[in-house]
Amino acid sequence: MQSGTSQTRHRAFRRAALAAALGTCLASAALHAQDAGSTGTSRSQTLDAITVTGSRIRGTDVETAQPVVFMDREAIRASGLTQVDDILALIPSIGTADITPQDNLTSGGDTGGRYTDLRNLGSQRTLVLVNGRRWSSSLSGLTDLSTLPVSIIERIDVLKDGASSIYGSDAIGGVVNIITRDRFEGAEANVYYGVNGKGDGAQKNGDFTWGRSTENASIILGASYQDNDPMMASKRSLTSYPNGPRHPGDGLGLGAYGGVVDPRADGTAGAGSFAPDGTWVPNNYVVNHPGGVVGNTADLVNYHPYDANSNADKYNTQRDTTFRSGSKLRNLFATGRYNVSDSVALRGMVSYSMRDSTTQVAGYPLQSASGRGDGLVIDPNNAYNPFPGYATPFFRRTVEMPRVTWSKSKLAHIDFGAEGTVGIAGRDWTWDATYNYSETKSRQVANGNIYLPNAEKALGPTTVIGGQVVCANAADRAAGCVPWNILAGPGGTPQAVWNYIGATGTTRQTSRTNDITANITGGIVDLPWLAGTNGGGTVNIAGGIEHRKETGTYRPDGNDAAGLTTNLASAPTDGSYTVNEAYLELDVPLLRDLPFAQELAVNVATRYSRYSNFGSTTNNKYSFRWKPFDDLLLRGTFAQGFRAPTINDLYAGTAESFETFLDPCDSAFGASVTNADVKARCATAGVPANYRQVDLSGKQISSNTGGQSPIPFLAGSNRNLRPETSITRTAGLVYSPSYVSGMDITLDYYKVDVANIISTVLASDILNYCYLQNDPTFCGRFTRGPDGRITALNESLANLGRLRTDGYDLGLHYRLPETSIGSFRVSSDSSYLSSYERSSGPGIASHNLVGYMDGTQGLYRVRSNLRLDWDYRQFGASWTLRYYSGLKDACYTSDVECNRPNEKNERTGGLGVSQKGSIAFNDAQLRYRARWNGNFTIGVNNIFNRKGPLYYSVTATGSGSPPYNPAFDIDRYFYVGYDQKF
């Protein structure tokens, strides 16, 4: 049944692609026909597309009423960047995406993609459009910008305003609208090469575009290729250690040489000791390995006591980990347009993208107490067991087999439709109708994990045959079983063993969008009576309907899902929903050409959305624009918004993760040390007074950064989720003084309030809500053992908490008068964050995190870019300064890297803040336009090779490699490019 459904869908896509291809061929044929028989007569220009981001009513006045940032092809080229997300990140109001190329621990189909985040509200709350229409999104609601090569982009519009009343779900933070090239004559080829100062992370790009245009038709074909080399964490001192170069001995993981836990009965003399609370603590031993040489692992004489507080038997996992993943991107693109008549045009677009990416982390920290395969011990009758006759627990990292994940993602997109004009009541109305189909398929292959049933057999009983130690069970030997001396360490395991116990897991994910839209806009009445002799203008209206179906599946590897491997287990995802929507937008120009009212107009929009999973929602938007005189425009909006639950939010199966967290009950670094109420609550919960949290290696945590859980926590979906809701308020001005030609000043205030946030409640938050906020709802999400250690924790999704943020955006742009030495342009764009208040649940106090490093997000008080451009004849140059204000960070300890030990940390709730300084990066570029239509570009980003501060609040999941901020340049970066037009 599933196969038949899949075949039907593929046939449908092939038919749609064929239709688009035929449309493109028709456009191409029309081009030749026009060349042969065109009379050269003029025609109506009413069909020329006018895209207004944030409004469906055509007209530039409506556009200027909203805070929109425009980046044209020249600005994109001048950035020296080749990824859309990196280009967007230059805008000060763009934050760090939820997933970056530095993220090596996040699993799933989104890994390896490129995303954006407007106003630090999360990538899922930024809507990405292409030519005003939704682009493909994943099961998690993320839009991968790597599927859009820079070569096909005409310009990028960034609407920094809520727009759910126009576009529907997800436009809470704003909208990124990527406008592709629709008219192009001739051919163009571009090549690019860039490399970091350390000689790694090279980027190699090439693209080719061909187009033909006539009066009535156009066609564009394009192909692009991009190859980004990976960067290894061990390459730089900044990333060579888990806790950074200042603390190279901290945060090391489980070692590469085998260790055992004394298996003898509690109370046995010499086997361990009793803790003060009466708990038996067995002795741990690690095999001796002087110079990397291991002796007889079956003899306990060759072992020494394992000291969790010593690094002698630890391993630096950064030596095997990618700092930034590598990727290869390929794209084919075609767009065509044919004007059937002066009032009707057909258009179509086809895009196919393929992305390959690779990440690597150190080998798996395998141990009997890891929660994976409780029977995984060294058998009593195993020849390598230092405790013969006992089932012996062990611990050891399999460094010989790093965990490598290959991801391949394919996006097929097609849209085709018609647009035109029609006369209604003596007025011209513009209409369009579009069918939009996207299908994204991703496959992940994870290598380097352990197949636990075979590992159990390889650690099972052995015998000697022909002088060789072999697996005792004949059936297991016939199936390939080879004894595994796991205690021997690196070099002590034959390849035959790795072949037998190794696990390669394959997961697949598919998401599909079917979207049909229809829009119409035009004038309905003039308002002369409100504007004296000159008239107020025409009342314009726009309306439309949309039907969209989202479908998604996720198929984990069967062995992983069954918990038979060391890979994170997850259950399948399968779900879909449909939405039917209708909207209306009304623009009313009230006054014009009057004293203190050169223009006064209001705009009202409403959108009704009916979802199959949760019901309906209506969202409204009200805005005004007022020009008291020609030089000044005042504007403001009030907008309701929403974000619907994604397929993953609703239908994802339960998944595991090994979280890094700080337990408030820890007697050395937890909040219980300074908060008597927390200490009392921990005691009431049965936590011993001297309880110490341990990390994955069994070591007691040594700083306020906490440690990674030695057991997996669980997270899952929730079918009863409701949509997130938001209120956005903006007010601003645009000032273009007539007495200073070429100058523009914009200033906008924004305030966004998001409620019912859909979120995974992370381990640290759950524990803080339970003990710091005394909320029993969260206390039921975890359990502890008699020793106080957490034995299970549930992080499933919920509609919890609120997020409120407000601030200002300031833009200053000035084109100086022409001089004898060329033309100069100065531009400055800045963002000032006034507040960023987050409350994680009803009744829980909010915390203002502005100025903090918040896990994956730097909430800078000020971000600013200053750019100077110069052009003279064929030459050009630019200098850009990118400024980030300082951030507050968690103290490393109370007396190490803690310059404000008595200040309350708004993020953790405890005491201690480390204030880090600001940083500025400088970029330079030189350009030369050759007479043969060639353009040379050479540039250096971060020309002074500045390094940002280290932040111990940076989390490994999402952003990537702590403690370095993923928003900062890691190195000086050189690039060269050449463009040739034909």
From TrEMBL:
<keyword id="KW-0813">Transport</keyword>
<dbReference type="InterPro" id="IPR000531">
    <property type="entry name" value="Beta-barrel_TonB"/>
</dbReference>
<comment type="similarity">
    <text>Belongs to the TonB-dependent receptor family.</text>
</comment>
<dbReference type="GO" id="GO:0009279">
    <property type="term" value="C:cell outer membrane"/>
</dbReference>
<keyword id="KW-0812">Transmembrane</keyword>
<dbReference type="InterPro" id="IPR037066">
    <property type="entry name" value="Plug_dom_sf"/>
</dbReference>
<dbReference type="InterPro" id="IPR036942">
    <property type="entry name" value="Beta-barrel_TonB_sf"/>
</dbReference>
<keyword id="KW-0472">Membrane</keyword>
<feature type="signal peptide">
    <location>
        <begin position="1"/>
        <end position="33"/>
    </location>
</feature>
<dbReference type="Pfam" id="PF00593">
    <property type="entry name" value="TonB_dep_Rec_b-barrel"/>
</dbReference>
<keyword id="KW-1134">Transmembrane beta strand</keyword>
<feature type="domain" description="TonB-dependent receptor-like beta-barrel">
    <location>
        <begin position="378"/>
        <end position="943"/>
    </location>
</feature>
<keyword id="KW-0732">Signal</keyword>
<keyword id="KW-0998">Cell outer membrane</keyword>
<feature type="domain" description="TonB-dependent receptor plug">
    <location>
        <begin position="63"/>
        <end position="175"/>
    </location>
</feature>
<keyword id="KW-0675">Receptor</keyword>
<keyword id="KW-0798">TonB box</keyword>
<dbReference type="InterPro" id="IPR039426">
    <property type="entry name" value="TonB-dep_rcpt-like"/>
</dbReference>
<dbReference type="Pfam" id="PF07715">
    <property type="entry name" value="Plug"/>
</dbReference>
<protein>
    <submittedName>
        <fullName>Iron complex outermembrane receptor protein</fullName>
    </submittedName>
</protein>
<dbReference type="InterPro" id="IPR012910">
    <property type="entry name" value="Plug_dom"/>
</dbReference>
